[in-house]
Each structure stands twice: as C-alpha cells, then as structure tokens.
C-alpha cells in the first residue's frame, strides 16, 4: 500500500488543466470550440551514441521534421499562430528551436517557445498549445517533443550546500537509476517481476515492428541526404533467459535489479502534433484525428519519482469525470521496469490495455519526445482498434508525474 505521506504529498502538489468536459458522453461530443489534433507523427528513433541519429543535432532533427510535416500536410506556415517545443537538455533550446523553424521555411512572424518538465516535456508542449487555443489566444499551433540523448545526455545537477542539506532536495537531483532501485527496494519489486514486464515490452515492440505497425506513425525525414524512416532501437529475439543473464547497471544501489534490458532505452528522436479548433479544422479542410481533453501534473517524493502515474492517472480521470474502465488504450512510460511494474499493479489496469505495441523499454525514451510520441502512438493504435479514449502518463525526474486524456476521431479504412 502507498504511504499516507506519499498520498498527502501528491494531493498537495498538483495542478490540472481547466475547461475540461466531464463525463464520457460530454467528452465524446463534438463541439466547434473543441481543441483537436489534425496531424500526429514522429520520426524514427535512433539508439543513443550508436544509432542512425547519433550525428544529428537537435536543430537539424527539428528542421527535418518541420519540413516533412509542412510538405505532408500542405499547411500554409503563415497560418501558424505559435509553436511550443518540449525538450530537456540541449543548451539554448529556444535559440536552436527558433532557428530550426526559420530554416524549415516557417515565417519569422510565427513565434516559438520551449518547455522543460523533463520526461513530460512533450506532453507539456501539447498542453501549452491546447490551453492557448482554449483561451482564445490563438487558433493553429504546433506542439513538438525532441531530444538527442547522444548529443545531450542528462547533466549532473548541481545544488548548493545549504539546499543539499534538505533530504528531499538532495534526493531530487540523484541519478534516475537510483530512484529505480529505491522503488524496487521499498515496494518489493523483484528482478523477476521487472524482467517479466520488460519481456512484454520487448515482445510487443518486436512483433509490431515486424508487422510494419510503427510505419503508420512514423513520418520519414531526410537527414544528410538519407531518408530515416525505421526505428533502430528495437531488439528482436529478446527472451526471458537473455534478460535474466544481464548484469545490473547500478550494482551499488538498492537491490541492484535494474539492467540494460529492463530499463527505458536511451535514444534520439522527435515528434509533432498540429492542434486547432474543430471549427477552424473544418473551415481549412483538415483531417481530424483526435481531440485534446485534459491533463494533470502531480508531485511525489523525489526518491520514488517512478510511482507518480499512480497519482497522475486517477487525477486526470477524476477531473474528466471518467472511470479507468472507460479508457481503451493507456500509454504509460516505461522509464524503468521497477516503477512501471509497480504502477501497473497498483493501478489495477489490464496489461492488455497498456502499451499494446511495447513502450520505452523496447522503443526507447528520448526525454522530450516521449510525451508527444505517446500521443502519436496511442492515437494510431486507437484508429486501428476503432477505440475511443487514450490516457497517457509518465513519471518525471525530481519527483513528479503527468497524465493526459485524448479522444480518437479517426477510423481505419476497414471501418469506413
């Protein structure tokens, strides 16, 4: 059971989006003022330091994604009101994002911002654009998530001595691997359980990769004269035996149960969503893929940052007036199998609904990209299944969590 301290702390440190319709029937209604998603794609992902994007800078990746998106959608870039890019560690992120947009042919009157809430940065970019549209401040916006963990690995945070004397302040800047081991130790998540959930991720991703399912969500981009269109992060042939044979990567912390096979992969990539009002989308003849509904952000003890979806998901469901059974697909980030396993079992959601094509353990977790990638992946899956509701969630470094609710409005050709 979760401690009273964790629950009270999480309930105190949370914020949520406003203007959300409440109840399943209200959420599924179509209204002119709805914030809708008219385009949702991602680049292929590359393995950090070894993969196809290891020599690609963040601005180069963003420029390629902007250009491919404008070419695919035929969107007049002069009609874009604002852009928000979620990204974590590149230096001068606003400068490089602005430069990439200009180099891609987006006019200089189109503004841009960046947001960093670590692993939820992409979702926060979507939320930023959605809220501005809801407020009537704009009509068409782009939300992106990007990170190159090759070029910009997590830096070691530095805090002063007086701040470091506070236990939680000290914990919030510790390596993420340490938090994985703390969750495993405190909540008794065994190595065997972690490997079990990791195998599900690897198996599902490998099967989806082989079936060409990810091609439906990937937009090919041209980089250095070559077209990048297929993930190189997915490892076919992973077995229970091969996972069990891996050595711990953090042997000096906790039960030393985290391995390269049961932790979220380190990668490079970017993803994008175009958002507008339903009225504007219909006026412009844009295809409507889905609808933004709501988001939540919570805080938990930094030492156990990985358990935060346990709080973020019920919060966003509550504010939307939904039950967990109403959701057709959950995309819950697999930062580490320790925290993912514990979240799944505490939330008591059928694993069949969660990450049906695998998650970050297999696909990889470019930090800023993931929050948008989950929406891209989840909406594509709902389209295939003719499902209605998507819930995305992730834990966030330093002790936070976030979640979002989206409605699918696209149907596959076989359902038309």
TrEMBL record:
Pfam families: Thiolase_C, Thiolase_N. Residues 35-278 form the Thiolase N-terminal domain. PROSITE patterns: THIOLASE_1 (PS00098). The active site is at 119 (acyl-thioester intermediate), 365 (proton acceptor), 395 (proton acceptor). It comes from Mycena maculata. Keywords: Acyltransferase, Transferase. GO terms for cellular component: peroxisome. It comes from the Eukaryota. The lineage of its organism: Eukaryota, Fungi, Dikarya, Basidiomycota, Agaricomycotina. Residues 288-406 form the Thiolase C-terminal domain. SUPFAM superfamilies: Thiolase-like (SSF53901). It catalyses: an acyl-CoA + acetyl-CoA = a 3-oxoacyl-CoA + CoA. PANTHER family: 3-KETOACYL-COA THIOLASE, PEROXISOMAL, ACETYL-COA C-ACETYLTRANSFERASE. GO terms for molecular function: acetyl-CoA C-acyltransferase activity. This is Thiolase, N-terminal domain-containing protein. GO terms for biological process: fatty acid beta-oxidation; phenylacetate catabolic process. Pathway: Lipid metabolism; fatty acid metabolism. Belongs to the thiolase-like superfamily. Thiolase family. InterPro entries: Thiolase, Thiolase-like, Thiolase-like_sf_Thiolase, Thiolase_acyl_enz_int_AS, Thiolase_C, Thiolase_N.
